[in-house]
Amino acid sequence: SYKSTINQVVYKDFDTLFDIHPVTRKLNVLTNVDAVVRSVKNLVLTNKGERPYQPFLGCDVRNRLFELAEDFTEDEIVENITDVINEYEPRAELIDVVADVKPDQNSVNVSITFRVINQTGETTVNLLLEKVR
What we know:
Number of strands: 5
Number of helices: 3
Strand order of the largest sheet: 3-4-5
Radius of gyration: 18 Å
Oligomer: single chain
Order of helices and strands: EEHHHEEE
Distance between the termini: 67 Å
Strand content: 25-35%
Helix content: 10-25%
């Protein structure tokens, strides 16, 4: 009899904190949703030109926090985040990005909803981006 097998794709990334597993003494590994969530956060928090040899990687949202609140809008932030995730994170199927600029608190609340390609459920990442003095 013929049995079809489906290869389940597993996404793995090293934990960027470089923590060591207490028993195996190996680096911790993030898989599937956790790996993609970490990648999305890193993309949003990276400014263009910050990574060597990748001058266009990033979305400059943190740099824009130092501009006057009138100089940028939620739409521009959403567009920047959407572009960087669509360009640099093929494992995430973007569903929605919402940005809420709070000029009085010098911060932006960002909510990113996506689906990992090999998963069925949606995942939401919430970030509070603030000026650091």
